[in-house]
Amino acid sequence: MLVDTGANVTLLRAVLAQKLKEQLIYMGPNISLKTATGDKTEVRGKLDESIECGSRKFHHRIYVADVTDPCILGLDFLKKFNFTVDLEKKEIRTGGEEIPLFSASVQHLKSCSVLAKKRTIIPARSECLIEGVPEVPEQFRYAVTDFPSQVSHKGVLVAAALVYLEREAIPVIVLNLNNKPKILDEGAVIATCEPVVDIIIRPQEFSGEQYLPSSLDNLEIFDEGQRTAVRKLLKEFQNSFSTCDADVGRCNMTQHRINTGDHPPIKQYRRRLPLARKEEADNLVKEMVDNRIIEESS
C-alpha cells in the first residue's frame, strides 16, 4: 500500500478489484484521471470498502484504475480521517495511534559491504567483472551496488548496478584507472549494497508509430524469410533502439557518481568562439535544450 499525498483520490489496482466484483460499481468509459507522469488512465469503477490501517478499519470510497501499486491511499482518505503525515519519523498518525510508513523489516534494512569472492588482479587501465558476496547474506533480495566510500581504493571505480542477491555470486564491474595492476585479495571490500525495497516496472508509452533507423533495415545479407523474421524482431523491440541522434533516452533509477579523488578543480579561461561557428554552436545548444539533454542553469 502506498501513501501518496499527491493523489487526490484513493485508488485500487483493477486486477485486485476483480476479487470484489460484487461490490464494484462500474463507471462510464469517459472518466479518466491524470497520473504523476502526466499520462491519463481510465477509471473502471468505484466501491465502498473497509481499509485496515494500524489497529482500526476505515470505511471509504475507493476508485478502481490501472495503476502500478496495489493500493494508493490518497489525500481524500487522509483528510477524511484526520491523518497526520510525519516524514521525519516515517509514520502517519490518527486518533493517537502511530502507524509506521514502512514495515519493521524494511525500516532496519541497511547497506552492507560486498566482499571479493576470490583474489583478483585487475590489469592497468582496464575494467574487470569481479564475483562478490554480501557480507551479511540473506538480508534482502535486491540491491544497488555502489562505490565503497568507507574504503580507500585510489584510482578504482565501481559501476552502480541493480543486482539479485540470492545468486551464488554478485557481479561487480570494477575499473582500474591506475597505470599499475590492482590486486584485490579474497574478502576485500569491493562495493556496497544499498537495499531496494520495491521495483516498479513502468512501461514506456509512445505517441504515434516509432520507426527504426534505416541502417537497421538494410538486411541484404539475409534471404527473404530471414529478413522478415529479423524485421519482426526489431519491430517488437523497437523501443530499445534510438530513432535519431537526439533520442538518447534517460534513466532515473540511480545517480551517476564520478570520483575525482583529491584532484583540485580544473580552471580554464573562457575563449571567444569564432563568429563563423557561433550560429552552428547556438543551433546545437538549442537542439540539446529542446531534447532535454541539457538545461539552462539558474
TrEMBL record:
Which top-rank group of organisms is this from? Eukaryota
Question: Which SUPFAM superfamilies does the protein's record reference?
Answer: Acid proteases (SSF50630), DNA/RNA polymerases (SSF56672)
> Single Gene Ontology BP term?
proteolysis
GO terms for molecular function, please?
Answer: aspartic-type endopeptidase activity
- Protein's name according to its UniProt entry: Peptidase A9 domain-containing protein
* Organism in which the protein naturally occurs: Araneus ventricosus (Orbweaver spider)
